[in-house]
UniProtKB/TrEMBL annotation:
It comes from Caulobacter segnis (strain ATCC 21756 / DSM 7131 / JCM 7823 / NBRC 15250 / LMG 17158 / TK0059) (Mycoplana segnis). GO terms for biological process: DNA integration; DNA recombination. It comes from the Bacteria. One of its GO terms (molecular function) is DNA binding. Pfam families: Phage_integrase. Gene3D superfamilies: Intergrase catalytic core. PANTHER family: PHAGE INTEGRASE-RELATED, PROPHAGE INTEGRASE INTD-RELATED. Residues 177-361 form the Tyr recombinase domain. This is Integrase family protein. Transmembrane segments: none annotated. Residues 364-386 are annotated as: Disordered.
Amino acid sequence: MSVYKPAKSRFYQYDFQYKGKRYTGSTSVATMRKAEEVERKVRADVALGLYDDQAGMTLDEAAGQWWEEVGKHLRTARDVERRLEILLRLMGPETRLVDITTRKVSTAIEKRRSETFQKAPDRPGKPAKRYPIKNATVNGDIIGMLRRILRRAETIWEVKPIPKISWRALTLKEPEPEVRLYTEAQQQAWLDQCDPVTRTALSLLLTYGLRLGELFFPPSAFDPSGPRLVINKRKRGALLLPLRQDHADDIAARVAVAINEGLETVWFEELVIPAAGKRERRVMYIPLTYGGIQARMRTAAKRAGLNMPRLIHGTRHHAGTMMLAKSGNLKLAQQLLGHADIKSTMRYAHAMDGALRNVLENLDPVRKSPDSPEPVVRRRSRSIKS
């Protein structure tokens, strides 16, 4: 064994050559026996390529290179950047890719699961609450992000050996996708309990499956020539959304007022101050906030007797389900909801069951013609031994 103890050090050093390349360094141990064990381990790692330049790549270096080559070019770059920061914080930026094991990934997952996040209060003065991280978020932050980096490191950057990780065992169970469908009576009851502005907003949600945040589009997003809206989707960029004529007329009127008053969105309430004495009649336009419309929709739903969870987001599922049920076309439902991947739209495929069942019920089975001859059945004869 090529280990020795320098004169001015209490630790043994290793010094050997492999394929013409010299490897030397401290064993960080003070006895010959342990030093030889360390040296054997180093030799084995060298033979496996763990001491090559690429094998020394850290998670921080890999994340930076992946960001430059892939991440920053994605439409979801902002979300990806945030997830990279979480991954580096939990896994350690100096961790080598070749040292990442199933156990280390599992430890990072448990750390993420123990964390919470804070939501902004629905209305001023209400204390903010902290909520646990959902399993789907944990899977995306750790497993989804790390798998993409390691796959590129192995196939493109030729970092070897990348340890085999049991991704299936690590993936946390996620709840089944929610599917919501409001009956005509429920929709009408909800709309009847809304004020005129909120009724228009709710009608758009039920028809087009917009997220509540997407509803707050600027006046410039309305294109009367379509008529249509230009909605900025998080994962898909701009989505051109055709409008029904009745909705287009309502939005056009609100756009005209918003532009004239210099408002940021088309959602406002008209306040009329009647004339009194020398004071002339005035009309003021009060902008409505995200939290304001959200609170009004929830109050109207409560009055209408609707108490299911995630009522407002349920309108998105309702719109997707209705589009698929009416058209039977997954592509149209995907276009309406702005899904980047059609797999996200597949959750609404149950809506096609009824249409498919009706078609099957109306199919006539193949019937035998009265003049058709009886089928001939041939049987193999058995030989009987005497």
